Amino acid sequence: MDNSTKQYDVVIVGGGWAGSLLAYKLSSANKKVLVLEAGIAIDGLITNPDENQLETGSRAEFMDDFFMAMAKTPESPYVQNYNAPRPAVLDIRPVTSPPAPEDCADPIKSINNGYFIQKGPIPFGSTYERRGGGTSWHWLGTSLRMMPNDFKMKSVYNKAVDWPLTYEDLSNYYDEAEFEIGVSADVDEQKIHGITFSDGYVYPMAKIPPTILDNTMDKALANVTFDGSSLKVTGTPAGRNGVPNQLKDGSFYDNGRRQCQGNTNCTPICPIQAKYDATISMAKALMTGNVDIIYQAVAFNITIDEATKEVNGVEYKTYDKIDGPSTGTFTATGTKYVIAAHAIEAAKLLLMSNKQLPNGVANHSLQVGKNLMDHPMYLGWGLMPKPVYPFRGPLSTSGIEGPRDGAFRSERASFRIEIGNEGWNWPAGAPYNQVIDMVSPLPPDKSGKPTIGIFGSQLRKNIQSVFTRQFRIGFLIEQLPDDNCYIVPSKTCVDNLGVPRPEIHYSFDNYTMEGFKAAAAATETIFKAVDADNKTGIPVGDGGVFTYEGVKYYSQGAGHVMGTHRMGFTNEDSVTDANMKSWDHDNLYLVGCGSFPTTATSNPTLTMAALTFKAADAILKSF
Amino acid sequence: MKKINIITLLIGFGALAAYLSSSSCHNPKPLTGSNNGDSTHVTTPLSPVMPFDVTLPPPPQRVLETTVRRGFDLFSWDSFIALCWPSKSGQVIGQFGDNATVWETYKKNYQVFLDSGQKPQPWDIGSQTKEIFLSQIGKTPPEMTAIFQPFLTGPLIDQNGQYCRFEIAMNREMFEYINQHTLYNIEGQRSFTDTVIFPEGNNATKKYGAVMVKASWKILGAGDDTSRFHKVKAIIHIAALPSRGIKDTSYEAWVGLVGLHIGTKTVTSPQWIWSTFEQVDNVPDFGKVEKGKHYNFYNEAAGDKALNKAPVQPWNPGIKGQIPSQVARLTPIYTGTQALNDSIHKLLVAINPRNVWQYYELVGTQWPVHPAQSNTGDPFPVYMANATLETYDQGTIKDGKVVYVPGVTSSCIDCHNGSTTWGGRPADFTYLLKTAKAVKK
Amino acid sequence: MTLDEFVSLSSALTGYPASTLKPARDTQMIAQTLYEQLNLPSNNIPSAQLDLLTLVWNQISGTPPPQLEAAVKEKIIDNLAITRLAQNIIYLWFFGIWYDLSKNPASFTSPNIDHVVSPLAYKNGLVWGEMGAHPMGFSTGVFGYWENVPQLPAIN
């Protein structure tokens, strides 16, 4: 629908994580906000009655799709939308050298084969969602703060760049983000590597209780070190509901949602919304009455006032059906503009907007789309000597944070280690693949002919023995900004609306590959300490394979897409200032994980939320 | 499974069961009501006595879908009749059309969980009936009083653009448990280290268990046949919404009862027995709209594109001209339950042809079939929803068919199993405790 | 194959008592739901295979319990003509999934007709309870249950 006649204080492109938090904070300060969301609506988050005629989704529908999916991937609850497509983990395949030409004449067929145009040499392994609430639908919930040194990689370790802000600058915004997300954690336990908290600060909720696996690892690893780093196990701050705390001001925290029931399904979807997702903040934003949201509105061009260099409109296309044609082109206008459309989509939109500025909007630095980063993950899995009862509790409740910082960072990537509560579900398709191996083992010729397996009481005994002892750890490995990692709008491949798809160039430098090597070594150390049988091998997701010093490694995407419109100190080497305001256009803000100059090792959501609140403050002050 | 004539199997179980199955020579003692000197006498087998627990046929005759279900449905109706019995003594239910009810003398949640966090007033039916203050506009799985809770699944808007309101009340047994254990404020719950176990109704010891009641009301207005509603005058609250020029206001209006949940903790059903009733004009069954009928929450002309979808934001009852909710019942009332409804409606009509209670029907009863099997005790039916209280969680429609989703589609027991206290402990299947406030210093 | 035959055969194949698979007071009708898969034309079950499995099962179903597993092993599991169908019955119960009979479930070749039978079939998959857990995405546990050791179901 056409909102071109209405003038807003702020136009936000993207109704996901950053867009929802921004809409909430700006509308609460009485600003009139328009949100353009490319994907489908979420039931209850609609401001225009006509939207009820379009495609809306609900948790019930997503859960139904999840239950019925054969492969319960992060994307399984969320149907592909060919007019606002997104990548899927099942599409991650090795990239040939040179990359095979993409046959994308038929957008739907081609997108079914993978949304990204992967140019390699390593396929980009991370995915995201495009719909109301964005990727928050399938985030894990991990809400770690970054450490002071993470902001100073250049000055401390002579690597990459510093952030244009410090931990201290962000500390209050961390508080604000933890409150809005509703984080459960213990302050004392989180005071590591120089992380500090304001006096009397408590997290909104007490830490989530650890699992039997966590306690087993904790006992074995308390005094073990790797490469000088402690391997002590600590609770992971989580954006899921625990027991309410009494806050600094004496009030008791309550967000009205249920406590976690340990559905072991944070990714792909929490069935009871005990885990925060961005629809919660968007609902609060809409309830102010200050926000309009238009769904199925795909921004494709940002226009600039040639005289002032300010943004004066966002053009978007609409559609009725997720595989249907475009139903119109409109322009949204406001005083300020925010692109909060996910690191890859935001960069794509800026680069696509090249009619007035040949290099694209906000791209004087030529850094837009560059420095694409993730926390490539190394998985290690094994069998414990005694039952640890996985597949219970939240997907992850504890981690090993010692190796996140140390002198080694001038040589190799640091990492944090996530302890998974879902057995071999991620690396080896548990429980399906192992049960199949028991009941109908694959014949040596890998044909479909019948084979003989076990059944009855023997099958039951084997299931009890194997699945109660499975565990896995995952290393989130630091990646530095790199010229070889970037995204550009494809010149040849478009989606169903004719909007270019992301063409991705991606690889690992030696710093990151040294991180993988260290991760493999740390796996040995840890498994030895816990007396586990190391079963690490070829994971089911084997597309991210690479060889380093003659050893094959399999990387997985963490879903942490960062760096494509980074903040910095000058307009020559960064896209925005520390308030995420474009150096080039005074009324344009770029907000999201794309703002990160470096990745650190913490799951980026909490930091992104803190940055979003910082940007919101700057926007409010600018009026 | 061969259909069994359930009615004949039920002789001797509970007042209603006995009556419904009786021949003329085997009648329970009929009840007689009088109107203070009025010579009109009314005789009815309906009873003001609440059942303690469900009464089931002997084990060999227990068939889940028929006899057992009938036993629980009878429990529901027995409870409903007793709860809606006139609070004024000497009267019979619906004798004068409508009547103030017993459950309306129960303590409301805001009379137990005071804003001050202080100890509530002792149980006193007289003082409890005075105020009816309806502020809740959103039905969520947990009964939250605040309007802007993010867990809201959306308000229910009637054909006149008016928001439905909700209230929660509890019986004396439940109140006393909360009172005795200082569960009426946050601090009390946080220092409570025991397991919350509300009293259980028990046929053997003739003890009542905890009963909680949740009612949904619509503001009576144009198009409503007020003779078909139990009605009360209530204070209606509208919260401020500055962006739309709406100020915080309250006003008086007549409201009609459109839905009633009854939750009863009993010894046979530690996961509680969940009975739910609705006013008969609420909504059509999905795909079965009666032509020309005036529904409270469905408009034939509006079509089904927004069927069972939450209203447009922002949600505030003060906004003029809001689009009514378009609601259908996704699970039709079970035929056996419907037959029981018909029988009881006849008894209510016999008392008075204008008996308002004949316009309420049992939608269903959910109970734990194997209480010891798991925390949720294998609830049956697997899904259950009241169209006015779980409007948007009834299931979804996929390619014209109703789809139910475990863990999301409304199931009283599955959802209430997740309720906790302010101390984070299981709250014994009630979200009520979470409405407690901190002690004001 | 009748529903009763399906339930008794399922009991022998899964190692669970028939009364667990199809309780007297059956709230979710899982046995019925799974049984219907055997009659679903789109599952392409060769009728000779289904008939043979039924026949063989009826021949051995009266075997005394202590010898029953051995009989099932010899006559069904080791019989390449019907073992694949028997395996699919195991998968129905443990996963709520029907796998393409013409393929090995581990092979992941497509196209195939693998499918989850229904959300309730998934939710009732036996594999989860067997390991002391719950189906991913459906827990009836209370907050913090994961700190405590679960009780595994007894195996006879």
Automatic annotation (TrEMBL), chain A:
The keyword Endoplasmic reticulum does not apply. Gene3D superfamilies: FAD/NAD(P)-binding domain (3.50.50.60). Its cofactor is FAD. One of its GO terms (molecular function) is oxidoreductase activity, acting on CH-OH group of donors. It holds the Pfam family GMC_oxred_C. InterPro entries: FAD/NAD-bd_sf (IPR036188), GMC_OxRdtase_N (IPR000172), GMC_OxRtase_C (IPR007867), P2Ox-like (IPR051473). It comes from the Bacteria. Residues 260-376 form the Glucose-methanol-choline oxidoreductase N-terminal domain. Residues 494-611 form the Glucose-methanol-choline oxidoreductase C-terminal domain. Belongs to the GMC oxidoreductase family. This is Choline dehydrogenase-like flavoprotein. It comes from Mucilaginibacter frigoritolerans. The lineage of its organism: Bacteria, Pseudomonadati, Bacteroidota, Sphingobacteriia, Sphingobacteriales.
UniProtKB/TrEMBL annotation, chain B:
Keywords: Signal. Residues 1-17 form the signal peptide. This is Cytochrome P460. It comes from Mucilaginibacter frigoritolerans. The lineage of its organism: Bacteria, Pseudomonadati, Bacteroidota, Sphingobacteriia, Sphingobacteriales.
From TrEMBL, chain C:
This is D-sorbitol dehydrogenase-like protein.
